[in-house]
UniProtKB/TrEMBL annotation:
This is Transcriptional regulator, TetR family. One of its GO terms (molecular function) is DNA-binding transcription factor activity. Residues 31-50 bind DNA. Residues 8-68 form the HTH tetR-type domain. Gene3D superfamilies: Tetracycline Repressor, domain 2 (1.10.357.10). Keywords: DNA-binding, Transcription, Transcription regulation. It comes from Actinokineospora terrae.
């Protein structure tokens, strides 16, 4: 075996051992030394693959959350689709394995990126809901949307997940599904507000470096053409600035803490997108990828959780670029031609 193959085999053994240890002892009482012993490896071997217990825990949960059974959506109405989405969610609570509920001790100092990832999940669900039953906006009014409605649905489902862990048997699944269906009729006067004083976009002519990353939303290889947002985990919702102008957006998630925040990204998004694939038809205008080399290859020399860089890609070339607050809005509104879809909302 090559060195890379040995490392991958060790990583797989460590993840398997970690899953068994977390199942047996829970997050709080599990120890890296015991995980290493269960994997028949040294403590150093564990730390050469993972930064610590929390990174291991998030990797195990992400891998579990990403598993799903393919199912063709059959819903014709928003009520039916949200009901199917909620059904897929509560059905996973009955499956054996670790709960995806993250106790405060796990997320602790990751609270802000965790919140932004939850908001991104609500945006994805809201986009799917708007695609099935668009919300009309009066002439001259800002675009109406369903993101807060989606957030209310996800809040109900996350609360169900938490209760299912601490009070097994209390939650009646069909009541939860019915509650989520009823929330499709909730009127929240939700609308999109454009950012004030965005940074300017600049025309450029640069090659676009291809990526082999898969879309975390669809599970398919990503095809990049439109707006590319290279955004840190504290600024994820900036992508809506381009979406509401009718552009297809590829979100490249970057962070200064990849060992923990990359698996957290996979976990939080998987909780939502697995259900979306099973309940809503059609393709969303937002793709999400992780590519640790892409930022550098498009000229971003350093990334952090506050990074906000937007590019417009057309025909394999980068034709516009902006960096800073409002970059996605600026690039989406620049004159460089790019494929567009009708504005959302």
């Amino acid at each position: 075996m090559s060195r890379a193959e040995i490392q991958e085999a060790n990583r797989t053994r460590i993840l398997g051992a970690a899953r068994e240890e977390f199942l047996a002892r829970g997050y709080r009482d599990a120890k890296v030394d015991d995980i290493a012993a269960r994997a028949d490896l040294t403590r150093g071997a564990v730390y050469s693959n993972f930064s610590g217990k929390r990174a291991l825990y998030l990797e195990v949960l992400a891998a579990q959350a990403e598993k799903s059974t393919p199912r063709d959506p059959s819903a014709q109405t928003l009520w039916e689709a949200v009901g199917a989405f909620a059904h897929a969610w509560v059905a996973r609570l009955e499956e054996p394995g670790l709960s995806t509920y993250l106790a405060p001790e796990v997320v602790d100092d990751l609270a802000l990126p965790y919140t932004r990832l939850r908001q991104l999940s609500a945006l994805l669900l809201g986009l799917a809901m708007e695609r099935l039953e668009p919300v009309s906006s009066p002439d001259g009014a800002p675009p109406a949307r369903r993101v807060r409605q989606a957030q209310a649905i996800l809040t109900t489902l996350h609360g169900t997940t938490a209760l299912a862990r601490v009070t097994p048997g209390l939650v009646e699944p069909f009541d939860v599904i019915s509650a989520c269906e009823q929330l499709t009729r909730l009127e929240l006067n939700d609308w999109w507000s454009s950012p004030h004083n965005p940074v300017p976009a600049h025309p450029v002519d640069e090659p676009w470096p291809e990526t082999t990353a898969r879309d975390l939303v669809s599970g398919e290889p990503v095809q990049v053409d439109g707006v590319v947002a290279v955004v840190g985990t504290h600024r994820l919702m900036a992508v809506e600035e381009a979406l509401r102008q009718g552009h297809r957006v590829t979100l490249v998630v970057v962070t200064s803490q990849p060992a923990e925040l990359h698996p957290l990204t996979r976990l939080v998004l998987a909780e939502t997108v697995v259900g979306l694939r099973q309940s809503f038809r059609g393709e969303l205008p937002l793709s999400v990828i992780r590519d640790d080399t892409l930022a550098e290859r498009v000229g971003i020399t350093a990334v952090s959780d506050a990074t906000e860089v937007a590019l417009r890609v057309r025909g394999g070339r980068i034709v516009a670029r902006a960096e800073g607050a409002g970059a996605c809005h600026a690039v989406a509104g620049s004159r460089a031609g790019v494929s567009r879809t009708p504005p959302i909302g």
